[in-house]
Design brief:
mainly alpha; two-stranded antiparallel ribbon; 49% helix; 5% strand; rod-shaped
């Protein structure tokens, strides 16, 4: 899973799934001036919940697109 980088941490614009919720508590990359900070269980859960929300939005979009194609057929 990838999220766009809004914090300017220099991760090339993307963060991995365990970093998904990092914007809620500050950037995991620069908080300690380049020292890696391991996420807490709560941060991982928050990231997974955010990911699930994005997946549900994707499903809704795909369902809408299918309905459009069926209607046009």
């Amino acid at each position: 899973m990838h999220h766009t980088n809004e914090c300017g941490c220099g991760h090339g614009g993307y963060h991995t799934s365990w970093q998904a919720g990092h914007h809620q508590g500050g950037c995991c990359c620069t908080r300690h001036h380049g020292v890696h900070r391991f996420p807490t269980k709560e941060e991982i859960v928050a990231g997974l919940e955010e990911y699930l929300s994005h997946l549900r939005e994707e499903v809704k979009g795909v369902e809408e697109r299918i309905a459009e194609f069926k209607k046009a057929a």
